[in-house]
Write a structure and sequence with these properties.
Serine Threonine Protein Phosphatase 5, Tetratricopeptide repeat, mainly alpha
Length: 217
């Protein structure tokens, strides 16, 4: 199957969640180390628990539409991930789900609209902007790269790869920032020099997205 024939359906979302859970699990200790420097040292464990639960929920039964699947996963994250991460990542998935509605097959523009709704949900809940050393610092540039990829005539797979690279660069760019939101903001200047764990998790989710789009078996 050619790249331009990739079907973005419930199976795609399931692959994304499966790969996200795997990425988070592989990087659990790294995420915890990052959080130990500027947070409560539980981000990796919490994210691993939440995404594993979201993946395990698929064993019981996969919802009929991509939106319903994202909504189920988002609700699980809200319930199972501790701290601020659960509500933030859970809200992102649920807002994306709402934007998809009952659509059974997505295209690049629909996926972009849904992911932007997820970013909007995060910013409304956390009141964060780029430069605050948060999830937004990886998510926002990923969205810009994805949109530019689509507008530039790239297929969804190539655009997702660009988004993943931008998210990773955004996460790394949080190292010299001083945190202005969340637990890390309490440290003031001492938060400088550390990579934000939430932004790092976000980069992992976009890496999983690029993998899911590129997996055409």
């Amino acid at each position: 199957m050619r790249v331009d024939e990739v079907v973005l359906d419930t199976g795609f979302v399931q692959r994304w969640l499966d790969e996200a859970a795997a990425q988070i699990h592989r990087n659990r200790d790294f995420l915890t180390q990052l959080d130990a420097a500027i947070g409560d040292a539980d981000h990796g464990v919490n994210m691993d628990r939440g995404f594993s639960a979201a993946r395990d929920g698929l064993v019981v039964g996969v919802p009929a539409t991509p939106g319903a699947l994202l909504d189920q996963a988002g609700a699980t994250l809200v319930l199972r991930v501790g701290g601020a991460a659960g509500p933030l990542f859970g809200t992102a998935l649920r807002r994306a789900a709402a934007a998809l509605g009952e659509a059974e097959i997505l295209d690049g523009e629909t996926l972009l609209r849904a992911m932007r709704a997820g970013l909007d949900g995060i910013q409304r809940l956390g009141a964060a902007v780029e430069g605050d050393k948060t999830i937004v610092d990886a998510y926002a540039p990923a969205m810009l790269a994805f949109e530019r990829g689509l507008r530039g005539g790239r297929d969804v797979s190539s655009a997702a790869v660009k988004a993943s690279a931008a998210a990773d660069a955004g996460a790394r760019a949080t190292v010299p920032m001083q945190a202005r939101k969340g637990r890390a903001s309490y440290l003031g200047p001492r938060s400088i020099g550390h990579q934000d764990p939430g932004a790092t998790s976000t980069a992992l989710l976009f890496a999983a997205l690029a993998h899911a789009v590129g997996d055409r078996e």
